[in-house]
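From the shared-data thread, chain only:
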Amino acid sequence: MEWLVLIGRILYSMIFVLFGLNHFFKLSDMAGYAASQGVPAPTVATIITGIMLVLGGLSVLLGYKARIGSLLLVIFLIPTAFIMHNFWSFNDPMMASNQMAHFMKNLALAGSALLIYYFGTGPKSLES
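Structure, as tokens:
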């Protein structure tokens, strides 16, 4: 059963590591979208959030300093839900629905990160 925890960590952390790297590989596009949402210093913000995502995701994946890593993820996810996925501001029902899904996804992922913060990463972690 302890392998299930490792598999869960791998699946959970993949989204953060991949999206974090995407912040760098598509920096111009990501910063442009951040600018369109009113984020100040969008390029710097994109780089900082990319670092937060990669470090947080790797921390959870490896089970090393996971309390810090999970907090990085929460600090990213909650503001991002409200700033980047403000579904209540869309008039188009399809766009509002799409943004609401992203908003709720971010909150659910933040909830999972809080569970990791509290319970830890379990067996097969570098810090068991």
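The CA atoms of residues 27 and 46 lie 7 Å apart.
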